[in-house]
Specification:
This protein is of the alpha/beta class. The chain is built from 16 helices and 23 strands.
Length: 496
């Protein structure tokens, strides 16, 4: 008899879990995927802009090539998706100045500030070599001296208030939170996104939602949109029963042998759990991992790509809204054509503005656009506001502190190893972290099924290689405090 497996959530994690289980076990499993919303994909969403025959990334803006962790790149190749490198030095906007190199940055921070900044980067990269960066979020990180310090405390080691501010601003969009609310290690990991010895970036040529479409097209199991899980009952004699409610109010119960929960903590909290021990275990899981924060993406379609000469690459960073990454998602038809800017606000500013009207949000962003003062509203064709808050938000402290053993974080009640929790909030707030969580959870569940069926099918991780091997390379000594020259060279030469 086939094992019945339920998967809660049809985002990247849920669809990939279904695909890997089907690939490994075939007819030995019967899978259902339940999605409370109307669409699959979660935070991966590409929105068309018919006016220019293009699109923008309403959710996940980039994918990461992390040195020593090849799984995501291997999945992309396996699915036959085309990629495009994402280049960004990055340039910075500080006040009314555009900083393009270290000389210009020194004009803001001073010689002493630049020295303090270099020392901080040398210290940070020394404590976080690429081999460890590739395995971020594992239990071994508990031994890192910055794991139990806040990022604000670690930034204080710079001993220069202006440099502390600049460094926090630099990675604010990636963190999506403020330095006191996350760990020093997670803060440094997000800074290292700008270091080509650790990470490079790319997008999918047909839009990042192509990843979801490719997975959905390969999943044979039924995916039910508009179907919320309201209650999970677990009994050691009768097994697990999942209670469902569809958008029309209809209800049904499903008996399952295993259950994968791919919701963030805010979504897990909406489900009732029984028995009492299971309820307590899940509540403890949520408390430990519930560090939700928000994103707000504001995308502007302009008649002209007027910023191209000042910002010739795929993104720049502005000090507006506490630090914001601005992506150029214009169609590739030359500098004089229509232009698309997408502003990614994170953390406290995102939460503040998310409650305002779209008009107020767009007006605030227009006032921050470099080279658009006074505001030229006649240049604006259309604006889009995408709110990623609440259940759709991200984690400000993935894995919590301390990081729990993998078996405990994925299966908080040891009586029920066939109940696995999966999500990027367990490792980091990226698709790489989500993929790491899927590979662990599916492999663990696969071991349980194999023990019952004597299956000799390939392990789920074999699709991407046997485990993430730590990178062996070491970063070159940077010529600049935040690697302007290295990032520029990497953008030209990488085959990402």
């Amino acid at each position: 008899m086939a094992d019945r497996i339920g998967i809660i959530g049809a985002g990247f994690s849920g669809l990939l879990s279904a695909y890997l289980l089907e690939r490994r076990f075939g007819d030995q499993v019967e899978i259902e995927v339940w999605e409370a919303g109307d669409r699959s994909g979660g935070r991966v969403r590409t929105t068309p802009v018919p006016e220019v025959g293009a699109s923008y990334e309403a959710g996940v803006a980039e994918l990461y090539d992390i040195a020593g962790n090849p799984h995501l790149r291997r999945l992309i190749r396996h699915l036959g998706l085309r990629t495009r490198p994402l280049t960004g030095t990055p340039y910075f906007v500080v006040g009314d100045r555009v900083l393009r190199d270290d000389r210009m940055l020194e004009g803001v921070l001073g010689r002493r500030g630049m020295d303090r900044l270099r020392r901080f980067w040398e210290r940070g990269t020394g404590l976080r070599p690429p081999a460890d960066y590739a395995l971020a979020g594992r239990e071994r990180d508990n031994a890192h001296p910055w794991q139990r310090r806040t990022f604000a405390d670690v930034l204080g080691d710079i001993d220069d208030p202006l440099c502390e501010w600049f460094t926090a601003m630099q990675c604010h969009s990636d963190l999506a939170t403020e330095p006191p609310h996350t760990s020093g290690l997670f803060g440094m990991d997000n800074l290292l996104i700008d270091h080509p010895g650790y990470c490079t970036m790319y997008t999918l040529a047909e839009g990042n939602e192509g990843l979801i479409a490719a997975l959905a097209g390969r999943v044979r199991s039924p995916v039910s949109p508009g179907t919320a899980v309201t209650h999970v009952a677990a009994d050691e004699e009768t097994g697990m029963r999942v209670s469902l409610r569809n958008r029309g109010g209809g209800r049904r119960d499903v008996e399952v042998d295993a259950l994968l929960v791919t919701l963030p903590p805010a979504g897990v909290r909406r489900i009732r759990w029984s028995d009492e021990r299971l309820q307590d275990a899940v509540a403890g899981h949520v408390r430990h991992h519930d560090h939700g924060t928000a994103y707000l993406r504001v995308t502007l379609l302009f008649r002209r790509r007027f910023w191209r000469r000042a910002f010739p690459e795929d993104y720049f960073v502005s000090d507006a809204f506490g630090g914001v990454t601005v992506y150029d998602q214009s169609p590739d038809d030359g500098a004089e054509g229509a232009g698309i800017q997408s502003w990614l606000l994170g953390g406290a500013p995102a939460l503040e503005y998310a409650s305002k009207s779209d008009g107020d949000i767009v007006a605030a962003v227009l006032n921050a656009v470099p080279g658009l003062s006074p505001v030229r509203e006649d240049l604006l064709v259309r604006a889009f506001v995408d709110r990623w808050t609440g259940v759709a938000g991200v984690s400000a402290l993935p894995g919590g502190v301390p990081l729990r053993p993998a078996r405990q974080r994925h299966s908080p009640d040891p009586r029920w190893p066939q109940l696995q929790f999966i999500g990027d909030y367990l490792y980091d707030a990226t698709l790489c972290g989500a993929l790491d969580a899927v590979l662990y959870g599916v492999s663990r569940l696969g071991d349980l099924i194999t023990a019952k069926t004597d299956s000799v099918a390939d392990g789920a991780a074999d699709l991407f290689g046997a485990g993430a091997e730590p990178g062996s390379s070491t970063p070159s000594s940077p010529r600049s405090a935040f690697f302007l020259d290295e990032r520029r060279a990497a953008g030209r030469e990488s085959a990402r």
